[in-house]
Fold this protein.
Amino acid sequence: MAWDDWVDESINITNTAASDVPCGDGKVKRVFTAVGQLPTLNPDPDNKLDGATRDIGYSFAERGYERDVSGPSQADVLPTRTIVWVKEAAGLRFSFTVSLPSDTRIAAQINGETRCE
């Protein structure tokens, strides 16, 4: 999987999904994880998280993912937000959590996995 197209130097890929992970009954899936922090000068915590979820979400949307809205709304949730994006036909599911570790930083954790097949 070409994760390099998704992330820049501010994100550290901690699992590239390069190997199969057992998920029961002889089936396997692939798991991807990444973490990073980005600078922010926005003084409002809600606006910081809004901007981060919008920017990261745009990256998923432009690649054909759809937002999973089956869970509770994350609008105006502080101090962290978790958003889920899926590409059903390909069996891919990603979630990302953004938080505010300081007044000038936004932290992002991205988790993805393939369908268990």
